[in-house]
Amino acid sequence: MAETKKVGSVAYATRDSSYFAKRGLIRHANVWHLWALGVGAVISGHFSGWNGGLLQGGWGGMFIATIVIGVMYLGLTFAIAEMSPALPHTGAAYSFARTAMGPWGGFLTGLAENVEYVLTPAVIVFFIGSYLTGIFGTPDSFQPVWWVLAYIVFVGLNVWGVALSFRVTLVVTLLALACLLVFWISAIPNMDFSRWALNIGPGGVELPEGNGPFLPNGIIGIFYALPFAVWLFLAVEQLPLAAEESMDPKRDMPRGIIAAFLTLVVSAFAILTLNPSVAGIGSFALGSSGEPLLDGFKAIYGDGIAKGLALVAVLGLIASFHTIIFAQGRQIFSLSRAGYFPTLLSVTHDSRKTPHIAMVAGALLGLAVILSVWFLAGEENRGSVIGFTLLNMAVFGAMLSYIMQGISFILLRQNQPNMDRPFRNPFGVPGAALTVIIAAVTIYFQITGDAAYRAGILGVAIWFAVFIAYFALVGRHKLILSPEEEFALEHKA
């Protein structure tokens, strides 16, 4: 019979070695796999999503917003680069917050990430289905079939084995970057920055001759562009979820995440500068486009090869879909292994040692949400609810987790100064504090900027209420001494 040990407001049930034997992972990832995991998770945001900020702040407002959000992610990635090798556990954000703020802090941080990692692939698969519908000419009602097929294929690849999963991650990420590189090279001789990138005037009107102001909506436009600039970096923080599958997390984790962030910085400013500058498009038209990169290719090469270009554009979506499914599985696995979620979810495959139940459960939950919206929202509202409200729920969850991770870093620096830190963040507490401040400001302008954001926040509140009720009534009485929990207790959190 298992013994129970009460610690503060939670209780731990002891488990023998057989419990963890059924929840084993295999180390395989090197620094390049980790780099691809970080870049691949984000890269679809360079294909579409970011461009809505052009109508909010004009090109100049979006440019400054990207710098501000880049500073936020700079502070976040370097904080994670210090915390992940010091706490090399699959739990990542949950693990950092658990050690810094106790079980409730760890659970709430993990829950915020759970919203992000379950809903983001659900929305990405909606866009994949939209592209495939146009390419193959299937009826709109067929879209749910594309979603199910995509989940089956990419959850299957992730379940098949960690070696295959990382190999696919590396290949699709390199292909997506190659697609962007081809566009950048193609755009340079076809750009006219002043005429097209600066064709938005005050109030968001189109200027037919271009040459408009740098900040057409003034300083406030920068702030309303912040949530859109997040798309250029969103989900790079998932990389530490591979800590227990990394060959040398203490050396490779900091290198992988910093290299991924620097790659994304180059790509972000390249796409922000070149895409709106291509002759025949401009910031005004691009601001409301669902496929800005595809529109850029069409402007350069014509509509005649549109279907071929659409297939190319799907690469970015596939790269992010595949890598975030990986993160989703590990995130659910870590919370389940520690007892915050039902422990059945953390059982790994007998031979392949992948968290197959966690990945299938996350996929089914994401599919259930998107299918519910599809059938309940009505034909006219489906696209906006899935493409904006659900995705805004994911962004809101991410911002909350960034705030919690920044606070975790600050608390660990203050309360655990002697903790072994293989990598030390050169930006320290000020960098983490900037991350917290910018994330909080971004949330504020999410709330005030668009009704879709407010609806998304209501959805996150419901998500939190359901899982917090489960944890308060059941989970907190059945925690397990997983690696994350043991580390936290050893450091008296």
TrEMBL record:
Highest rank taxon of the organism: Bacteria
Record localization: Cell membrane
Assigned keywords, A-Z: Cell membrane, Membrane, Transmembrane, Transmembrane helix
Keyword Transferase on entry: no
Gene Ontology CC terms, in alphabetical order: plasma membrane
Membrane topology label: Multi-pass membrane protein
Gene3D superfamilies named among the record's database cross-references: Amino acid/polyamine transporter I
Membrane-crossing segments per the record: 31-50, 62-81, 117-138, 144-163, 170-188, 214-236, 257-285, 305-327, 357-377, 383-404, 425-445, 451-473
GO MF annotation list: transmembrane transporter activity
Keyword Cell membrane included in the entry's annotation: yes
Protein name per Swiss-Prot or TrEMBL: Amino acid ABC transporter permease
Organism encoding this protein: Devosia limi DSM 17137
